[in-house]
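REVIEWER CHECKLIST
Item 1: Sequence provided? yes
Item 2: Single chain? yes
Item 3: Sequence as submitted:
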Amino acid sequence: MPEEYRLILKNADADGYTPDIKCYLKHGGYEALAKVLKMRGRTVDDKKFTAQEYLREEVKRSGLRGRGGAGFSCGLKWSFVDRRSGKPIYLICNADESEPGTFKDRQIIHKDPHQLIEGMIISCWANDVNLAYIYIRGEFPEGARILENALAEARKKNFLGKNICDSGYDLEIHVHRGAGAYICGEETGLIESLEGKRAYPRIKPPYFPAVLGLYMCPTIVNNVETLCGVKHIVEMGADKFATLGTPNNTGTRIVSLSGHVKRPGYYEIEVGKATLGELIYHENFGGGLREGRTLKAIVPGGSSAKVFKAGEKFKLKKRLPDGKMEENEVDLLDLPYDFDSLMSAGSMSGSGAIIVMDDSTDIVAALANLSEFYAHESCGQCTPCREGSLWMSKALHRLSHGEGRKADADYLTGIAKNIQGRTICAFGEACSWPVLSFVGKFKDEFEARGEADEKARDSGAA
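Item 4: Structure as written out by the authors:
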């Protein structure tokens, strides 16, 4: 029977658990940090590692993938850091959480902030970082206040500052509040904002954060949930952590479930151990759709993910233990909720936000709402995105307000295709993929709406 596996959220909703350091210490808080600070170098397979190098290898071996959207290997990302430049290395926690439908990281910040701080300290130690930042979006004033208080508590207990726990290691962490812009979730746009500039994403190459990040120094940018996972890798060990979830999709994942389900909320699962159908219909999760309704569509990974249409089938490839590839046809509701399966099906798990739409949904209005958001949030640096996102929003506004044309479906598709792949950052894809998938899979609804509007205008003119 599918059920939650609470690792990161183990204490978050427990009776009597509070976000202060006294409660955190009572539940074993900062024990993982103490373990790390006592680590010594070791030899593995005739290769010598310093303590920091060994921990970086452990994170890589655990299979932990970024929980912010891209699903890239955390350990591999750390390995790209330029450690020979002689410049200081920075670590930034991306707590912007601006993807519509996503509400997981704020649960950690509000309910268990010291878990994030401990994960950050461990990650900073592993990467020779002495100054780190938590970049939190401007609409989270209470979250920022909680984090500032938690950092003050950690300093008072000597978990931050000079000579942490008499280890000789120095670290300071600061909270930086953004002004509330979707583009600041993109790591280079975030870095520009943190430097006090307009959040224009940088061109990669050459501005890969691992080489040229904050203040043109090597920089690591990790998501809130990802950094919490590092703490649990230290506690459990890489091998045990890797047994959670499924191959290449290890550990747990916090899912934000919203839309037309009976029990919307956040749920933590072993990655790939629950299907989309189970997350929506099982009593341990969404509890099914509203009475008398049927499923129409699912957005599986935040609003920028390509939509799935009810009843779709997919051919998924899976590597067998002997190395051979096996292909099976899978129904939409039987798709395992993991990075690779959703990508193979043509979408992504993204930020872990599942938006469920039943048959009462006006697909045209839903896409118009999304496109208005993306047109507003475009930073304006790239012409295809700046102009195209606005054109799509205007066309969808026409369609959803009785002023559409049958040709608008093809018009929208043409604009979206001319945006994707032609922008500095992935915002171009974020605004074009919903249009391409919604129009592509529900084209009859868009054309019918436009045709009805044309007929109404013609009859009015007559």
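Item 5: Key structural point noted by reviewer: DSSP finds 17 helices and 15 strands in the chain.
Item 6: Recommendation: ____
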